[in-house]
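User: My collaborator sent over this chain with a note saying "see what the structure looks like." That's all I know about it. Can you take a look?
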Amino acid sequence: MKRKKKAGPNYNIYGWIFISLAFLLYIIFTIYPAIDSLLLAFQSFEGGKYTFVGLKNFKRMFGDAIFLKSLGNTFLYMVIQVPIPARYKWAEKMQMVKCYPSEITIFLWMENLSSGFAEKPIFQG
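Assistant: Without extra context I'll predict from the sequence alone. Here is the result:
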């Protein structure tokens, strides 16, 4: 059984117009830079020209001691700084909700203090 189209304006176009700006900005500021970075990773820039070098950039990068040190620091930061404080903050918030249900919003900004103090010992020396 076919559906009959109703007489009158089609309001679907308004939804597409509404979302088009956000979609355009997403393409310009997210998709395009990601694709461009991927293409540039396999090229070398010398003398105003891009030349394709394949995996040579990656070979040089993984042979660099400073890069490997920074990769280790990033992994350590990810393992320590993300899950452990997140669980602590969640438990802390649940305790605050029990004790101070009306004042909970005042204390929520405190979670930002802990990350700065926790990462300082990791990156010293």
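A starting point for your reply to your collaborator: The first helix runs from residue 12 to 40.
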